[in-house]
Structures are given as C-alpha cells and as structure tokens.
Design a protein that fits this description.
This protein is of the alpha+beta class and 162 residues long. 16% of the residues lie in helices and 40% in strands.
Length: 162
C-alpha cells in the first residue's frame, strides 16, 4: 500500500528514511488484535486444568496435533479464544496472545512501547515481556484474516492514546 512521506510515494513495507533512528524511520501499516487468553500450567496439572476449563466454559478444548502442548477452543462468536498450555518448566500463570498480519511490524511497534523480545518460538511467533515483565505472545495470522472489522489498524508508529 503506497503512503506519502515528505511528498514522496513509497511502499510502506520497505520505507526507511535517512536521518531518523530505527524506531522513527520505518512505517509499516498492519493490523493486530488481542486474540487469546492462554493458561500456562505445569505438566502435572495440565489434564485437570483442561477438564476444569472445558466445564467452566462449556466448550471442548481440542488437542492440537501440530503443537501438542496446547488444548484450545474459540469462545462465543469465535473472535476470542482460550488455550491451556502445558509448560515444560516455570510457574503456572495466564498470558495474552496478540495476533497480527505482520509479525515484525507488530513486534517493533510493541518494542517502541516498552516491550522486550524474549524468545522466537518454532520460527513462527515471539514471546515478549511487557514493561512490568509479564509475558505475552505475538502470533502471525494468515494474510487477509485481520481487517477493519475485527482488528486495530496501525498506519504508523503514532501512539493512538496521544
């Protein structure tokens, strides 16, 4: 999608501008949305946790063969989901997943807001920490699945709260 910068039309994905630091010079329009609540539990509690959340939500939590540490379901209209993740190590906790149509653009946007990259998982998604050190994940969605009707569009690095 072409955008204007300094009177010049540029392709947003590759737009870089000399004289600006990295956080200021890359404009990458993309979409993202808060998509899932993930309940992380140790292996000993996983089966009991899956059974509990199936009963609590009235939904069958499906085991994902491609990612065997997860059971999950879409809730309500399907716009929001629940996952129960079996941890290899670490304490039980809850984290959020943000889905995006441009992984690197969204991770960079969140870094500008104070988040830190922790781990790139399965060469597919990022585990990050928010400014308080709480974990969350940024997950890529297939092209075209996020749009103005179901996600937030980020046209540039401007903070919408200002």
């Amino acid at each position: 999608m072409p955008i204007r910068y300094g009177g010049e039309r540029v392709r947003a994905r590759s737009a870089t501008f000399p004289g600006f630091d990295e956080a200021e010079r890359t404009l990458v329009p993309h979409y993202s949305r808060l998509c899932k609540i993930v309940i992380d539990v140790n292996e000993a509690d996983h089966a009991e946790e899956v059974a509990f959340w199936q009963s609590a939500t009235g939904q069958t939590l499906t085991h994902y063969a491609s990612f065997p540490e997860y059971h999950g379901a879409d809730l309500g209209s399907g716009e929001f989901g629940l996952l129960v993740q079996r941890l290899g190590e670490g304490s039980s906790r809850v984290h959020l997943d943000i889905h995006t149509d441009d992984l690197e653009a969204e991770v960079a946007r969140l870094e500008r807001l104070g988040a830190k990259r922790v781990q790139h998982v399965h060469d597919r998604w990022w585990v990050m920490q928010d400014p308080a050190g709480l974990p969350f994940c940024v997950i890529p969605d297939p092209p075209g699945t996020l749009n103005d009707d179901n996600a937030q569009r980020w046209d540039d690095q401007a903070d919408p709260s200002t």
